[in-house]
Design brief:
There is one protein chain. By secondary structure, this protein is α+β, with helices and mostly antiparallel strands. It has a single domain, classed as Nucleoside diphosphate kinase-like domain (Alpha-Beta Plaits, 2-Layer Sandwich). Helix content is 34%, strand content 20%. The protein is built from 8 helices and 6 strands. The strands form 2 sheets. It has a 4-stranded antiparallel beta sheet. The chain is globular. The chain starts with 11 loop residues before the first strand and ends with a helix. The protein binds uridine-5'-diphosphate (UDP) and magnesium ion. Uridine-5'-diphosphate binds next to loops. One of its GO terms (molecular function) is ATP binding. This is Nucleoside diphosphate kinase. It comes from Buddleja alternifolia.
């Protein structure tokens, strides 16, 4: 018996996962949801949504100073997105692993971005801060980068009552 390995309620995290407009347009909604569902995380919120510019700016406010920021806002508001809240122990980091590296070219096979996205080579921009050539492209999905941001983003994208608390029937088959 290893008490330090036992998950408590405090270990349960929430993450905001969003299928970006390219994922919706390319018909990848089912495929992407399936990956999180099969893994065993709990879906607590789900909707198709046309994101207003102000919300996209608030969501990505940490990237405001980046040269690609205007393109990013255009991209995220260019069509409907699928907003999701997922819950589980370690869900934030695990979802980031399932999603893969920011640039699909660097994302490992088996990850969502590695399997479902390319880097076309068009729309290149230079990130002056990192003094690197940064490809701006489509990478089909977003995932929160910390438990704090998971909570912040879910509160931003979902209204009161849109996130459901429930117990999946499979729960006793996933953890003891
Ligand atoms: N992005 C990009 N080029 C970059 C950095 C970011 O096109 O050099 C876009 C991309 O869509 C990315 C989003 O901006 O998913 C947010 O950037 P972040 O660094 O937070 O990457 P993520 O957390 O999505 O992997
Ligand atoms: Mg990010």
């Amino acid at each position: 018996f290893l008490p330090h390995l036992v998950a408590s309620m405090e270990d349960v995290e929430e993450t905001y996962i969003m299928i970006k407009p390219d994922g919706v347009q390319r018909g990848l909604v089912g495929e992407i949801i399936t990956r999180f569902e099969k893994k065993g995380f709990k879906l607590t919120g789900l909707k198709l949504f046309q994101c207003p510019t102000e919300l996209a700016q608030e969501h990505y406010k940490d990237l405001q100073s980046k040269p690609f920021f205007p393109k990013l806002i255009n991209y995220i508001t260019s069509g409907p997105v699928v907003c999701m809240a997922w819950e589980g122990v370690g869900v934030v980091a695990s979802a980031r692993k399932l999603i893969g590296a920011t640039n699909p070219l660097n994302a490992e096979p088996g990850t969502i971005r590695g399997d479902l996205a390319v880097q076309t080579g068009s729309n290149y921009t230079v990130d002056s801060q990192d003094s690197m050539l940064i490809p701006f492209g489509r990478n089909v999905v977003h995932g929160s980068d910390s438990p704090e941001n998971g909570k912040r983003e879910i509160a931003l994208w979902f209204k009161q009552g849109e996130v459901c608390q429930w117990t999946p029937a499979q729960e006793p088959w996933l953890t003891e």
